[in-house]
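Slide 14.
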Amino acid sequence: MLGSAFLLFAGGINSLILPVRGNLEGFSSMSLGLLGTGWALGYVAGCILSATVVARVGHIRAFGVLCSIAAVSMLGSAILITPWTWIILRGLCGFCFAGTAMIVESWLSERTEPGARGRVFGVYTMVNLGASTAGYMMLTLGDPSGFFFFALAAIFYCLALVPTALSNTSTPTPMVSVKLNMHALWHNSPVAVFAVFWVGVSNAAFGTLAAVYAQNVGLTLTAVAFFTSIPILAGAVIQMPVGLLSDKMDRRKVLLGIAALALLADLAFILLAPEGRTLNLALAALLGGSIYAMYPVIVAHANDHAEPGTAIQISGGLLLTFGVGSIIGPTVAGWAMSEVGIRALFYVTSAAHGFVILYTLWRISRREAVADDDKSTFQPINAGRTSNLQTAKLSQNEQPETPQDGDKVVPPDAAH
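Slide 15: predicted structure.
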């Protein structure tokens, strides 16, 4: 938990200082959007390849190496201030975050009784959200045009490896590598696959370029930090009420409702063209509360239709689809902002939410809702930064002792 908090604190600084500093350096919106694309590419690669890395050198060494590489990417960004260098280094950092999250979560999974994993996962999520938010808010304390915040993030990336390196606990559980079947996933729940792709587009576009928008409408650095952190906190707060509601009615209708709220916020940004702090922050909270609550509802809906024992395959396939959307979203939004104007960010997000609404309405007319007794348990998920196959494994209240069909256990190195 402590290592993860240090890591996410550094990650919060990292994810905000780059667009803020890049905007001050005169980078185009397109190049700043590609920072998010680089991150998503690296993150997806990390989700796929990290288990192999851990199998080669063990959990502890792999975690230390990944934290060190993240620190190097941060310092490299401070030395080599060019858009293409930053995009490559951001992708490298995304790979590191995927690997470290999977390592931490597999460790937690071993140290926790099955019946308590849901609670542990909740605490873990809140630790990550709190640390990320604190990292965002650090930018209010200094000048983003200097070296300080790059160095501070690098320091905390290095500190993150200290608790695990000094730990004398037993070897973590072998990590899970999942064989995905995207055709079966689509057959299981078309609306989940379609919606999660467009949610990936909208969430990654907004998450990457929100700071650029906030700077260009004239908000102060403090307001920019709030503009990027409030949506994440709003999404965390609203997840449980949304989850309880989705347990009592058709989850697709709940998805429709929150997608409609997101579209309302998108249109308000476009039509009202807010320039003051208060209205921008209020709309950011509405948009964040909506977009960050969609992913767990989609995962729960897909699991409602899934065969027993396939939760990890379902979550893994949806994560991969979300990752593809996350690669596309910042690229398209960055290009649109460069060509059309700063509010084109919300043209992209509104289109994504509109597609979710239209397709979900059509699927409701084509398929009956799942009976309440047949529904899976809703689990809060922080998608896009820490979600991976180990997240799905950890969040299971009752995890089988043996792998399911399609899963394989990657053994840790004997030295660990």
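Speaker note: The chain is about 75% helix and 0% strand.
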